[in-house]
């Protein structure tokens, strides 16, 4: 059954994280994605942005017609659904006081500031737990809170390469020339998302543990180490077998006979590591004469991938993407079509599962957003509200939640604290 | 040793291969007792796969399997037999979570679907993570990690600007994110259960989970009707923003400059203060417009140094520079070693191997590696006799009749 999703006015549905309050003092992707996961499951997330400019994600697109507008950044809009937004200058003394008052009201704090800055401001976990012993505080930094690189500067490019993702990208077993070119990132901001989810796991585990141990705790999350988890298989492989993975793999793999290949109208990815899958591919290709050779038998085909490959290239080149994809899959070969973002969005699968949800925003208008990665039967995720405008919820949070008076707020606004 | 965050949580784990397995390993790192269900007829295929293809003779010495199944227990049950199904139900009765990554409702057909398990254990949390979720037109389709990169649009937007759609060489890149999303949703469901006593069913589509990594690209497509293009290391705003060649074979350093302050410090550190006055590199838009030339000039400088030297010279003045590390460099890196990111684990058959430690440092309930990956059926006696209280004789009979097998 495809379950109910999308905007639910009234919000009567049960929420997995209903009653959990989260403070986000973070920018760009990792921290905001970590808290988005919680917000989409019903946590109340209060997002702090610097007054004036806001989250740096607001300055990055995509933007409508490529015109930069802080309230219309697709990146910001996507990462901050279901959140309350306030402006606060945490570096000003007055702002810090408000910050501490907020910390008293929350279960979780997610922050991504340089460790040195957090120390200078007197906002370390040791200091904050005195005012809220139940606080779960998750600090996301490029290299963690300890060690020689802890104060190093890094942007998403450096995180991607510093964690070992880049050195093996792009992977092309059949094109030795890529070794002469620079290693690259995958598209998008993937390593940053990775870290956001990883931080979310520890944060949820700490929230769970709070029930047993009766107090909060501190989580030191290094982006480099989040990425390093993706090399967990490669590390022992290297130490045992001396295998250093590069952009051109030095060993054949069970899928070296295929890979991403050009077809008549785009690209397909010809895959299949199991014997029955390779047989399915042969069947898809009409069981040509050459495929009956003993060398391509179930026991041996992986030794002869490079001989099979030219046949596959030739066959693929004459056919269309959809045909190869669906006919291959019908035979249980794990073949895929390489789709553009727009094609993926409009694919029959995504349409049938209503994966993209309409959400209205006062400045950006109605747009389609990806739904959550999981569908929980009792407490489905929902996109109830679009990302906050800069400072949209100042009154609601500062006056209604913290109890500041209108005149106090006006004063703080004057001094630039909020 | 202090307690771990998920001590007391038990997971009956049907996940095989990489995706689900890496997710339940994260939960095991946090202290959950994960019982991996296999049988001698159908053990996790990863046990027998070797680098480069072919089959390994030894299911216990496979470094890939041993890296993906740390901290877990393993039992053997033939779930095609009704008595095997009954045994699983007994385990589920004392479990909190059940996980699987079968395509097309295998557990359902065996009588182990969510509804059936709920009868045994009303507050059970069941997570099922087939490739495409159920239902849907591609419900029965099969996929490996690359499949989801292809069908989400990730592959199409990855690569050199003049190249074709590309993948990373990390085979299980999307497997890991899917395992992580599985772990996250299970934890959220556990937190909900703690509040309400209610369990639930979680459907996780690995394709959709992959899509969530590039959410801004879809929103952007809806805005402008354009899909993102491939751009290597380039960034729309920052320049320099690339990997530059260094001394040695295939050695590179990544450098990213976001602010004028960084740009000035960078030029100073390179001994090229005059570049800050050059019209072509005056501000970020000019540097972006002339970045081919800029990349060439920066590369001429980096070539004279090792990547570590460049990192140290630039980080000293606050400029973001990191080597593009290979796996050998990462295992030897002083920073990661000081943070205890690599852990030696002793395995009775595979000997001593080094694995990547859990990725988080929790101050009160530390995540850690507590045991080596299990051998096939290693914990049959513990699970059936100790946990379920099965008499020795009955256990022997079930082993003899190849139900526990």
Overall description:
The complex is a heterodimer of chains A (418) and B (405). Chain A has 418 residues and is α/β, with parallel strands linked by helices. In chain A, 35% of the residues lie in helices and 13% in strands. Chain A has 16 helices and twelve strands. In chain A, the strands form three sheets. Chain A has a six-stranded parallel sheet with strand order 3-2-1-4-5-6. In chain A, strand 10 and strand 11 form a beta hairpin. The longest helix of chain A is centred in the middle third of the chain and has 24 residues. Chain A starts with 20 loop residues before the first strand and ends with a helix. Chain B is an alpha/beta fold and 405 residues long. Helices cover 38% and strands 14% of the residues of chain B. Chain B has 17 helices and twelve strands. A six-stranded parallel sheet of chain B has the order 3-2-1-4-5-6, sandwiched between helices. In chain B, strands 7-8-9 form a three-stranded antiparallel sheet. In chain B, helix 1 packs across helix 7. The longest helix of chain B has 24 residues. Chain B is elongated and about 85 Å long. The mean pLDDT of chain B is 95. Classes of the chains: A alpha/beta (418), B alpha/beta (405). The interface between A and B is large, with 165 and 155 residues.
Summarize the structure.
The complex is a heterodimer of chains A (418) and B (405). Chain A is an alpha/beta fold and 418 residues long. Chain A has helices spanning 30-39, 74-79, 93-104, 115-120, 125-131, 156-162, 190-213, 223-228, 234-241, 275-284, 305-317, 321-330, 341-345, 348-352, 394-401, 406-415, and strands at residues 21-25, 44-49, 83-87, 108-111, 136-141, 217-222, 259-263, 266-270, 336-337, 356-359, 367-370, 374-376.
């Amino acid at each position: 059954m495809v379950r109910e999703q999308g905007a639910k006015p009234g919000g009567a549905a049960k929420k997995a994280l209903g009653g959990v309050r989260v403070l986000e003092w973070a920018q760009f992707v990792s921290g905001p994605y970590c808290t988005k996961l919680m917000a989409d499951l019903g946590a109340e997330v209060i997002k702090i942005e610097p007054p004036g400019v806001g989250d740096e994600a607001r300055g990055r697109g995509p933007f409508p017609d490529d015109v930069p507008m802080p309230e219309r950044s697709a990146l910001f809009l996507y990462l901050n659904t279901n959140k309350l937004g306030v402006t606060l200058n945490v570096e000003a003394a007055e702002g810090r006081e408000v910050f501490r008052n907020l910390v008293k009201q929350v279960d979780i704090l997610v922050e991504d500031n340089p460790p040195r800055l957090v120390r200078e401001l007197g906002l370390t976990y040791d200091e904050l737990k005195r005012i809220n012993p139940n606080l779960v505080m998750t600090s996301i930094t490029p290299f963690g809170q300890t060690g020689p690189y802890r104060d190093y500067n890094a942007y998403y490019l450096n995180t991607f390469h510093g964690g070992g993702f880049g050195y093996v990208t792009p992977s092309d077993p059949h094109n030795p020339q890529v070794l002469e070119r620079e290693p690259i990132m995958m598209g998008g901001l993937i390593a940053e998302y990775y870290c956001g989810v990883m931080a979310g796991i520890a944060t949820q585990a700490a929230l769970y543990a709070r029930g047993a141990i009766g107090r909060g705790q501190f989580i030191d999350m290094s982006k480099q180490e989040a990425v390093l988890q993706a090399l967990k298989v490669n590390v022992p492989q290297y130490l045992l077998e001396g295998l250093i993975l590069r952009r051109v793999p030095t060993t054949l793999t069970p899928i070296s006979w295929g890979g991403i290949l050009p077809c008549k109208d785009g690209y397909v990815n010809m895959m299949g590591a199991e014997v029955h899958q390779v047989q399915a591919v042969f069947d898809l290709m009409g069981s040509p004469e050459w495929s009956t050779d003993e060398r391509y038998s179930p026991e041996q085909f992986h030794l002869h991938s490079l001989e099979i490959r030219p046949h596959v290239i030739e066959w693929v080149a004459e056919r269309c993407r959809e045909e190869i994809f669906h006919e291959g899959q019908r035979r249980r070969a794990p073949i895929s079509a390489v789709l553009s973002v727009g094609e993926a969005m409009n694919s029959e699968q995504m349409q049938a599962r209503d994966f993209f949800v309409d959400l209205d925003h006062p400045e950006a208008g109605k747009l389609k957003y990806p739904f959550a990665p999981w569908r929980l039967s009792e407490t489905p995720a929902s996109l109830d509200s679009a990302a906050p405008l800069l400072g949209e919820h100042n009154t609601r949070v500062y006056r209604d939640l913290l109890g500041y008076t209108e005149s106090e707020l006006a004063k703080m606004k004057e001094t630039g604290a909020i | 040793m202090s307690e771990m965050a998920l001590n007391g949580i038990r997971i009956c784990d049907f996940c095989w291969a990489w995706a689900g397995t890496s997710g339940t390993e994260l939960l095991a790192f946090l202290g959950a007792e994960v019982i991996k269900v296999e049988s001698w007829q159908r053990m996790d295929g990863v046990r027998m796969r070797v680098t480069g293809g072919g089959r390994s003779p030894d299911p216990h010495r496979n470094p890939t399997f041993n890296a993906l199944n740390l901290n877990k227990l393993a039992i053997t049950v033939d779930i095609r037999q009704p008595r095997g199904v009954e045994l699983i139900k007994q385990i589920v009765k004392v479990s909190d979570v059940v996980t699987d990554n079968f395509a097309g409702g295998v557990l359902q057909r065996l009588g182990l679907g969510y509804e059936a398990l709920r009868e045994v254990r009303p507050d059970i949390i069941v997570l099922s993570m087939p490739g495409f979720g159920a239902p849907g037109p591609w419900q029965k389709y099969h996929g490996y990690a690359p499949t989801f990169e292809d069908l989400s649009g990730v592959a199409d937007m990855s690569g050199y600007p003049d190249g074709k759609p590309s993948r990373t060489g990390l085979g299980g890149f999307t497997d890991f994110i899917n395992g992580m999303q599985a772990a996250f949703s299970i934890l959220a469901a556990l937190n909900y259960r703690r509040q309400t006593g209610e369990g639930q069913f979680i459907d996780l589509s690995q394709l959709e989970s992959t899509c969530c990594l590039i959410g801004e690209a879809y929103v952007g497509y809806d805005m402008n009707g354009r899909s993102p293009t491939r751009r290597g290391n380039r960034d729309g705003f920052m320049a320099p923003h690339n990997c530059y060649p260094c001394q040695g074979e295939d050695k590179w350093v990544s450098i990213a400059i976001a602010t004028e302050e960084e740009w000035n410090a960078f030029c100073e550190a390179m001994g090229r203060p005059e570049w800050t006055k050059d019209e072509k590199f005056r501000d970020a838009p000019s540097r972006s417009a002339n970045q081919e030339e800029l990349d060439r000039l920066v590369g001429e400088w980096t070539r004279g140094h090792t990547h570590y030297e460049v990192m140290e010279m630039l980080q000293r003045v606050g400029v973001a520079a990191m080597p593009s590390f290979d796996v050998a460099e990462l295992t030897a890196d002083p920073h990661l070693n000081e943070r205890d990111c690599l852990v030696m684990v002793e395995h009775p058959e595979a000997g001593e191997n080094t694995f990547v430690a859990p990725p988080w440092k929790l101050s009160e309930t530390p995540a850690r590696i507590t045991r080596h990956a299990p051998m096939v059926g290693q914990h049959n006696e513990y699970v059936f006799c100790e946990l379920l209280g099965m008499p020795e004789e009955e256990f022997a009979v079930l082993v003899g009749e190849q139900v526990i097998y």
